[in-house]
Predict the structure.
Amino acid sequence: MLVDDDGFSAVHLEGLLADLFEVEYFSNAREALESALKAPPDIVLMDVEMPEMDGFAACRELRNAPATRDVPIVFLSAHGEAENRLAGYEAGGDDYVSKPFNPGELRRKIELLLRNREKNRELAAHAQAAANAAMAAMASAGDVGTVLNFLRGIVALTDLEQVAVAALDTLRRYELDAAIQLRYGGTAISRSSQGLCSPLEENILGTMATCARIVDLGSRSAFNYERVSLIINNMPRSDPEYYGRLKDSVIMIAEAVEIHLRSLDLVLAARQQGESLTRAVRHGIQAVQDMRHRQDKLNRRGLGIVTELANRMEDAFLSLVLTERQEAHMEGLMQQALSEAQSLEAEEQAVDQLGRSLLAALEESLNTVPKPKEAGELPPPPDEAVRIELF
C-alpha cells in the first residue's frame, strides 16, 4: 500500500516496485486507513505530510487495530532530521527513508521487512505451539495426580460398593458422567454418577462387557475388562486433544480397578489366614495358661499328699513296736521322699518360668499384628509434600 498526496512521487514509486509487488495507491491517509482495516496489506509506504491526517497519525491508527498491528510501515519524507525520525519511531514505524531515496536501497529495505515479518509469524506460531504443549503437559500432570490419588484410595477397599463410588468420584473430577459395573465372586453391582443405575443402564453395561476393549459411540465411550465395564456418557469428541487425554486417564482408572479386583482374592485370603493365625495364637495362649493352672494345682496336691503321708507315718510309729534301727530307717525313707518332692517342685518352677516366657512372647507377637481395616475404610490423606502442584 502506497500512501502519498504527491501524485508524481507515487507514479515514480509504482514504476520502481511494480515488477515485484502489486501496488495499491491512496492519496488520502483516511481512505488508506479504511481500506487497510478491511484488507490488510503486506507492507505500507507512508508519506508524512498529508492533508486531513498525517502519516504519523495514520500509523498510530494502524498499530492500534488488531488486523494491522504487525503490518510493516515505512515512512517516506523529505524531512530526514533526527526529531522527525524519532517521531516516526514513536508512532510505530518500522523504518524511515528520506526523499530523495535510492531505489535499490528502498527495495532491499522492503524485502528485509517482509522477511522479518514472516520470521516473526513463524516464531509466534512456534511460541504458541510451545505454550499449548506446556498447557497440555500441565493438564496431563494434573490428570496423573488425580489418578495417583485414586490409586492410593482404593488400596484398602474390599467392598465393591466402595470401589465403585471411589471410581465414579474420581471421574466426576473430570466432569464426566459415568456408569460402572463391577463383577466379582459371582456377583455384579452397577452404579452411575447419579447413584443406582436404571434398568436400561444396567442392561447396557452387561451387554458392553462382551464387546471390544474400547468402543466409541458418538459422545459415549465404553471401556471393558474382565471384571469392569465403564461407560462415559459425555466424552468431548469435538476436542481431539482433550478427548485423547481424558481417554488415557479413564483407561488408567479402569485398569486400576480391574487389577484391584484381581488382587482382592489374594488380599482376602491373606486376611483370612492372618485372622486364623491370630485365633490360633489366642487359643495357644489360653491353653498354656490352663495348663499352668492345672500344673500348679497338681503340684500343690502332690506335695500335700506326701506331707500328709509323713505326718501319718510319724503318728503310726507310736503304735508300732519297732526297733530304733527300724524306726531310723523309716524316718530316712520319709525324709528322702520329702527331699525328692521338694526338688521336683523346683524343677516344676523352672518349667513354669519357661511357660511364662512363652506366654509373654505369644502375647507380644499378637499385639504387634496390625488390625485388619474394615471394608471400605480409606487410608489417611497423602501428605502435602507428595501432592502434585502446578506453579
Q: What stands out?
A: The longest helix spans residues 240-319. Confidence is low (pLDDT under 50) at residues 372-391.
